[in-house]
């Protein structure tokens, strides 16, 4: 069976790099399924859940906003945040969400507001992915 290389990279590190059977990712216009030999594509990735299917098993990651480049044999996601579902600390993500929401009630500059909103989105994404895995 044909596979496709999935690479997920943040500014800090390469988070995931494996050959998989298929990838589902959150595009800005909705969820996209990518199989081997997919038509070349470059688009934005929205914060959400990436699912990688390998050998009949699904692996999940929370990702932030970013970009994806798809070729026939590779999916490369560049994002500001990526974490495997099993590595998400729900208590820390909930604490980060509360801190960000509290900061948004303060008087902030536009730049600070954008930074806090990004942090809030990342914590909410992590919480959604982690809680969805429990079901």
Structural commentary:
The protein has helices at residues 90-104, 110-134; strands at residues 4-9, 14-20, 22-27, 30-34, 41-45, 48-54, 57-63, 66-70, 74-79, 82-84. The radius of gyration is 16 Å and the shape is globular. The two termini are 30 Å apart. The protein has 2 domains: 4-85, F0F1 ATP synthase delta/epsilon subunit, N-terminal (ATP Synthase, domain 1), CATH 2.60.15.10; 88-134. The strands form 2 sheets. It has a 5-stranded mixed β-sheet, with no helix packed on it. A 5-stranded antiparallel β-sheet has the order 4-3-6-7-10, with helices on one face. The protein has 2 helices and 10 strands, in the order ββββββββββαα. By secondary structure, it is an alpha+beta fold. Strand 1 and strand 2 (14-20) form a beta hairpin. Helix 1 (90-104) runs antiparallel to helix 2.
What's the total count of β strands? 10
CATH topology of the largest domain: ATP Synthase, domain 1
Derived from helix and strand composition plus strand pairing, the structural class reads: alpha+beta
What number of structural domains do the residues give?
Answer: 2
Topology:
Blueprint: E1 4-9, E2 14-20, E3 22-27, E4 30-34, E5 41-45, E6 48-54, E7 57-63, E8 66-70, E9 74-79, E10 82-84, H1 90-104, H2 110-134
Parallel strand pairs: 1-9
Antiparallel strand pairs: 1-2, 3-4, 3-6, 5-8, 6-7, 7-10, 8-9
Q: Can you give keywords for this protein?
A:
135 residues; alpha+beta; ATP Synthase, domain 1; 2 domains; five-stranded mixed beta sheet; five-stranded antiparallel beta sheet; 10 strands
């Amino acid at each position: 069976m044909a596979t496709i290389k999935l690479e997920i990279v943040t500014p800090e590190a390469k988070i995931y790099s494996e050959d998989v059977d298929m990838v589902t990712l959150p595009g800005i216009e909705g969820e996209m399924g990518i199989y081997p030999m997919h038509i070349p594509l470059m688009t934005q990735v929205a914060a959400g859940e990436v699912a990688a299917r390998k050998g009949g098993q699904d692996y999940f990651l929370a990702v932030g906003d970013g970009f994806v480049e798809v070729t026939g044999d590779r999916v490369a996601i560049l994002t500001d945040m990526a974490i495997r579902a099993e590595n998400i600390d729900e208590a820390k993500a909930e604490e980060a969400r509360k801190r960000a929401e509290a900061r948004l009630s303060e008087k902030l500059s536009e730049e600070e507001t954008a930074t806090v909103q990004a942090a809030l989105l990342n914590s909410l994404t992590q919480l959604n992915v982690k809680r969805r895995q429990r079901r």
